[in-house]
Structure formats: C-alpha cells, structure tokens
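Chapter review: from sequence to fold.
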Amino acid sequence: MTAAAPSTPPTSDHDWWRAAVVYQVYVRSFADSDGDGVGDLGGIRQRLPYLRDLGVDALWLTPFYTSPQIDGGYDVADYRDVDPLFGSLADFDAMIADAHALGLRIIVDLVPNHTSSAHPWFTAALAAGPGSPERQRYLFADGRGVDGELPPNDWESIFGGPAWTRLPDGQWYLHLFDPAQPDLNWRHPQVRAEFEDVLRFWLDRGVDGFRIDVAHGMIKAEGLPDVGFSSMTTGRRQSELLGKGRLPYFDQDEVHDIYRAWRPILDSYPGGRMAVAEAWAETPQRLARYIGPDELHQAFSFDFLDATWSADSFRKVIDTALAESTIVGAPTTWVLSNHDRQRHVTRYGDGEVGLRRARAAALLMLALPGSTYLYQGEELGLPEVLDLPDALRQDPAFLRTGESRDGCRVPIPWSGELAPYGFGPEGSALSWLPAPATWRALSVAAQTGTPGSTLELYRAALRIRHEHPALATAAGPVTWQEAGPGLLAFSRSADDTVLTCVVNLSGAPARIDGYGHPVVASADLTAQDAGHVLPVDAAAWFERR
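The token string follows.
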C-alpha cells in the first residue's frame, strides 16, 4: 500500500456541492483502459476531458475497492485498497490528480452497512466461533425453534429471501442484502473507529466527498424484533415498505449519532469535503434529519425519480422537496436514474416517446435550484437493455427475485460501428455485458456536433446552467407561473434577468408566450405570432430581461 501526497481540490469553495452537477460513474461500465472488458480507473482518467467538456462539476465513483465482486463491488473486502480489476492505488492517485487539474471533484462510494464475507473481520469471526469477540463486530444470533433451526426473526433480504444464513456451528448471521454481505454491528466501538479511519484514509488522498450507501441501515432496533409479516405468509415483501413505512432494521434514531461523529472529520479538511446519503425514510421529515450542520450535507431525493409523467406529480414532488430543504438549510438533490433503477428513457415509455420525455425531464431537473446527479449515459439518451441473456446477468438479486439491475449497467458506447463501441482500447471486442446494435447511433462520437442530439442538448443546458445568473446558484426561490392544463412552468431570477422553464406534459402541442425568447429546448419550437408552440413531451427555457 503506497502513501500519496494529497491531491489539491480545484477551488477552496466550501459550498461547491450546493449547486453542483455530479456525474455518477459506474466504474466497471464507463471505460476500459486495458482491454479486459471491464471499466477501470485508467479508463476514467482517459475520459476526464469528456466529462469536463460535458460541463459537470464532480464525479461520483461506485466502489472500486478490493472485493469478490458478488454485488458489483458493494461487497468490500478491503476499504483501503483498489481491486486489481480496476487498477491500483497509484492509478487512483493519478486519476484524482488529473481530475482536480481539470476542475473536477471526486466523490467515492462508502459502504458501511456491511462488508464482504471475504473481509478479514468476517473470516476471523467464522473461525472464532459463537460467543467470541470477533463475532461481536457483526450481527450473529442463535436461532429460534427447538434446535435453533429457525431464523432469529422474520427479517427479509432486500434481494429476496431470508435475511439470515445459518452456519454449521448453529448460529445465524444477518445480511440485509446477499449472504456474501454480512451486516456490521454499529454498536461496537471497533466498527465505528474503523470507518472513521477509512474516512481519513481517503480524505488524505484528496477525495472531495462520500456517497454513503444504505445510510439509513447501520443501526438495527434493540432486541431484533420481528417486522410482523413476510413474503412467505402474505406475498408482500418487506422491501415494499422502503421509504413508505418503518422497519426495525432501517432508519433507527441512533444512526444519527454516527453522522454526528463523522461531520467534524469532514469539516477538519480544507476545500469543502462533503457527504451525501442514500437514505430511505417513511416521511420527508425523517429524511431531512440526515442533513444539517452537524450531520450530512445532502440526501438523495428519490421522489423526483419516482414522479409519474404528469404536471401534478412533478409539482407536488418539487414543492415538497423545496420546503424540506428550506427547513434544514441544505439544497435539494435531484436525480432521474442511477445504477439501481431502470433508466428513465424506458420508465417514461421507451422508444421515441421515452426519449422525448427523458430530454424534457433533463431540462426540468437542470433548471431547479440545488444539486443534480446524472447517471452515466443519460446524456446519450440510453434506454434500459431489457433483453440481456439470463446467463450473462450478474446482479445477485436476479437469482433470488428474478429482478435484475444489469440492464442499466451495460457499458456505455463511445464510438464505432460495432459493439462494444470503443469501450476498450482500439481493437478490443470485450465488454462484461453486451451493448445492443441500436447503440451505434447513440455513441458519444455519433452525437458529438450533431444538432439536436441528446448529448448536445445536455452540453448546452449545462453550459447555460453554469453561466446564467438565475441558475448558477443553489439558492433563489422557484416562482410558479400560471399555465394551461398539463403544463408546468416556473421562473428563477437574478438581478434583472428572469429564466422560465416550461414543460409540456399535456398530451398536445401548447402555445407559449410572455416568457421571453427561448435559450434551449428539448424539441424544435415553432414560432407563432409573438410566441412559440411547444411540442408534446417537450421542455424549453425562456429568458426575459
């Protein structure tokens, strides 16, 4: 393991994250530098100029740590090293130095709820046996029934099936995800001290922030009580309560003690180091508790991702998110897709309809105050790949539930007429998942410089977002405008300039006037008298001085 001089952040702006556009890199699917068919840190480093030119402010990297890769790296065996599949610590140091030199910040995924079953702590726990100090760092328990043959409680894995696995010595261990991902006991002081040290390790190497995986999950209710129902008895999976109800293994009040201990560590480093929570809670008020001057900086707002294609749905979600962000004094985060969810082109209807709506939703999202998280490939208008052969799927949830996240993780297309479309070095034909033939028209090379392409739409919108005084700040109120049925219109202003975003969700073309001249649109506008006609499923930004 090598030590490195810390990489200097691009600026000393402590609040950079408040209005940042963050680009999520699913490391194994972004760019492959060595031709083995798997994306890596060297590939990211080669493509940093593309991300700078796209106009994003930061990258969020999915886990690249040492791992058996049972769950795409979210099963970590060593939190302080890079898996050889992705490179080395020297590769990481070179990548972050280049990113900072280009004005890009780096956020890394932290996975604190569970480790890999290959982690030295867990292998030691298995070897030590019941009642040992080694087992106290995880959640081991005796089973129920005459001979302990039944799980300790009725908890279910998010990936389907029981959340407990029994060992030959009779004890059970908890895994809220795959059996290869045993849950840590966050009431143990060694666990807390270990992750505080892990934070410092990566902060010392220059990372600008952390995305906290399963941030709501580290503390389990005392006594490990039953939920009270299971899919075996009711056909209803406990995971359906995620974000809708209380579960004894999620969103426990004591979890906030962890983040109150982490915040001073983040604040002790220069350059505005931050953390964003992947947290699910039953109410917006409980979600807001993760954010504040003594806890985390942000939490993802998944309600925006889940909004239906209607003006009322988006309006309700936006109003709720903005109201809650005002209470906690932190900006809202907006997201349309990520590595766990079906791509929004497909969610919105797929094909031409889905792409129209995805382009419009992008302009809606980028006009809102706060920070935005983009998922790699959405700037290309990529749809979900729905027809992957079952034999190639690698999502551990697939074998347990039949549901797979692999379709949003297909390597993105860069150039060329044949798959894998420049994913690896010239001449390489390998990619860990196959890209469809239709993606040749969606590659970065095919869309660059093409008027009306989704890539050029994103580039234009991001440039305006950074340069326009009404959009360049995380603050500033959203003023809703009177609009016809099925239309969503709001304005943001700075000095004597007003920018209005209008989205047509009505199902018919709509005449738009009174907002000024258009500066960017997701579809061609038609001039009509003193106004314009906005097509179906389209959005546009108008400027008035």
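Two observations follow directly from the output. The CA atoms of residues 7 and 97 lie 5 Å apart. The two ends are 57 Å apart (CA to CA).
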